[in-house]
Amino acid sequence: MKSILLFIGLTLSAAAGGAEPSISRVLGSIDVAPERALGSVETVNGGIEIGARARVARVETVNGHVRLGEGATAASLETVNGGITLDPGARVAGKVETVNGALSFAPGAEVGATARNVNGTVTVDGAHIVGQLRTSTGSIETLNGARLDGGILVDENRGNWGLFTWGTPRIVIGPGSVIGGPLKFQRKVTLYISDRAQVLGGIEGAEPTAYSTDRPPR
């Protein structure tokens, strides 16, 4: 009984060599205090909130939202059923990934590798994604000087999640956005590109509609 309770409860562990402690649990949300330094932060059923200017390693949950607070840093962020939010100035060294959930990146936030979901809207508001931004059915909007070095891929979604393929994704490349890699579309999308945006990697699989206003036509 004691071992079971230890397994399902909160565990704190530190590896040899003075590594920061990690947090792992099965049930319940996790809130990491501002400016705290931790190793990995993991739960199964619950959201994870990382406070402002905290420093953590891998962040993972299965059922729950993940939020990286203002100026906080993480090695990677991952969930299955839940959205992921990066507050202003938050930085992730590696990937940001969810299956069913929105992705939201605030001004000054940075993702050092790929950012991906299958279902859910994606908003890149003045943030920087070094790797590719990828979705299957999600609509995407980049604005306020967003930078996507690896471009965008909207895939066919023929894998295990192929049941979730309804609707036509709406892709908006807003004013000031700089897309360094290609825009690739393996399924039908509605594509709007501001005349104040830069798409440096070409467009494949869609015909863009240019617009000159602050917001695209509805």
Task: Please describe what this structure looks like.
- The strands form three sheets. This protein has an eleven-stranded mixed β-sheet with strand order 1-2-4-6-9-12-15-18-21-24-27, with no helix packed on it. A ten-stranded parallel β-sheet has the order 3-5-7-10-13-16-19-22-25-28, with no helix packed on it.
- It is mainly beta and 218 residues long.
- The N terminus is likely disordered.
- It contains one helix and 28 strands.
- 3% of the residues lie in helices and 36% in strands.
Write a concise synopsis of the structure shown.
3% of the residues lie in helices and 36% in strands.
Largest sheet: 11 strands, mixed
From the N-terminal CA to the C-terminal CA, the straight-line distance is 59 Å
Please tell me the overall pLDDT. 89
Helix-strand sequence: HEEEEEEEEEEEEEEEEEEEEEEEEEEEE
The strand line-up of the biggest sheet is 1-2-4-6-9-12-15-18-21-24-27
Helix-and-strand structural type? mainly beta
- Report the strand count: 28
**Helix count?**
1
Helix content: under 10%
| Mass-distribution shape | globular
**pLDDT < 50 stretches:** 1-18
Hey, roughly how much beta strand do the residues contain? 35-45%
Radius of gyration from the alpha-carbon trace, in angstroms: 18 Å
